[in-house]
Amino acid sequence: xxxxxxxWLAEVLNRSILVTGAPRxxxxxxxxxxxxxxxxxxxxxxxTVLPLLALMDSLDEANWRVLFxxxxxxxxxxxxxAGRTMNFNTFDxxxxxxxxxxxxxxxxxxxxxxxxxxxxxxxxxxxxxxKSPEAGIWAxxxxxxxxxxxxxxxxxxxxxxxxxxxxxxxxxxxxEARWFHQDGDMPFWWHRRRGEGxxxxxxxxxERQKAATLWSSVWGGLGEGIYVVLxxxxxxxxxEVFSSLCAFxxxxxxxxxxxxxxxxxxxxxxxxx
Length: 273
What we know:
- Helix 4 packs across helix 6.
- The chain is built from 14 helices and 5 strands.
- The longest helix has 21 residues, at 61-81.
- The chain is 52% helix and 9% strand.
- Strands 2-3-1-4-5 form a 5-stranded parallel sheet, with helices on both faces.
- By secondary structure, the protein is an alpha/beta fold.
- The radius of gyration is 19 Å and the shape is globular.
């Protein structure tokens, strides 16, 4: 059975921005900065997207696109526009009030009941920024399906990323389960990118080797035509680096952007003292 696509969903994705890079590279920092820009609607690490990407080669392309576009745009983006999934947890890195003027956004989003047509109209006028580190493994495929999609990847050295993953214990004991898909014995992305013969290899890798493999797998899938932000440069000269990125993407900083950049600079200065 062929599912019927809605063209406007593909149009939104075709001008969207994927923020990616190896986990623990600063993708959350970069995503928050872009979320603070005018006219941006932000989706943070959509959970259903990763299993869908893992199924890209298994499903009919037209049906896969309908599922992917519906999940990311018709569900995630539209619900944020209508104020149904705003993050009000002040302790969370993606707290809405950290990047947007809360009073204005509450009035705009929570002041009335939204129809689907109204939410769709707003989505068509805004830029979708979605952040997913592991989605970078499929960046080349996504660019083929949505040629207008911009991919922004933040680069942090492999040694620094591996060290951070080790400190967090990402591949230690039960925590490693977060990287497994339905097979239960290897990460959801492993079979496609590494092949069947690598199954036992993954199991035999130690924590450090697994972290390094994840880093290299993300960067190996990005392909050409991406905008690379250096983590060290963003932390050292946040205003200059982010201004260049905004110029490339055609985005304008919002009221909360300067404050976010000042925090980045201050933390960097404190860390280097």
